[in-house]
Amino acid sequence: MYALKDNKGNGISYNILLRAHTLEKGLSHFNLRPFGRKKIKTIIALLKKQLDIEHYERLFSFIIGINSLREYKRVYEEHKWTDKIEYKEVFKFLKKYGKIIEQKTGAYVMTKEELKKDYEIDYNKFIKSRHSTRNYKNMTLRIEDIKKAVNMAKYSASACNRQYIKVHYYPKGKMRQNVIDYSLGKGGLYLEGVNTFILTFDVNGLKGAGERNQGYFNAGLFSTNFVNALHSLGIGTCFIQFENSVKEEEKLKKLNEIPSNERIAVILYAGYYDDKSIFCLSPRKDFEEYFTLHE
Questions:
Q1: Most CB atoms closer than 10 Å: which of 109, 145, 198, 231?
Q2: What is the pLDDT of residues 176-189, one digit of tens each?
Q3: pTM score of the predicted model
C-alpha cells in the first residue's frame, strides 16, 4: 500500500523501525511512567534525514516513525504529562506532518479468553502434515496465493521489527533455470513443475559485528512460516541448501537481479500438490535427544 523503497537512505529506514520499536516496548507496560526523551530525539533526527527523498511521506519507515511519535504523544496526553519537555518536542515536530497516513503503533492488551479464540487449533496435526515435497503439478503459482503466504509470513518474529527479509520469485524462464543451476542437493526432485524462490536479507538492516548471524536467523524464521503458509494454501515446498561460494553468490545475484546489499539465505522450491505426492518418512529423534532440563 505504501511500501516505497528507500534506496537512497540505506540503513536509515531500518534504524527508524528499530527506534520506533523501542518506543513500542516502552509503551508495553501496565504501569507506565514518563520515558524516552533520547529515543524521540533520535527518531526525529532520523526522520529529518529522509525529507530529501522523493515522496518521503509514502515511505513505510517514515509513516511508522511519525505514527510512533503520535502514539507517544497520545499516551502522554492520556496520563496528563503534557508539561514534560519530551512531550513538547514531539508536539512541535508533529505539527508539520498532520497529513501523514494513519497507522496503528504502540501496544494493546488482549485477555486470555480473546487469545484462546486464535490458538485453539490443531497445530500438531497441521505441522506434521507438512513435508519436503519433490513432485508438483506443472503449473505456475498464482500471485494471489503467494501474496497470501507472504502476508502470513511477514508476522514472523523480526529483530526489533526491522523486517529486512526479501522474497524473490522466479516462476519460469532463464532466471528460474539460474536458480536451479546454482542449487545444491536437488537430486530426486521432479523439476518440471518447480517454481523457485530466493529469500534474502538486506545487510543495511544489520547493526555491527554482533549481528553477523541475525540475517540468516531472521531468514530462517521467515522462511519456516512462509512454507507453512504455502502448505495451508495447498502448495508443497522443499528447502534447498545454499552453501555456494561468495563468488557464486555474487554471480547468481547479478544474473537474477538481486541488489548488491542483499545476501542470499535460502533457496526454496515450490508447487501445487499433485494428485499424489511421495514423501520421505524422515523419522524424528525422541524428545529426550532434543531436550535437556537444567535445574
A1: 198
A2: 999 999 998 888 88
A3: 0.89
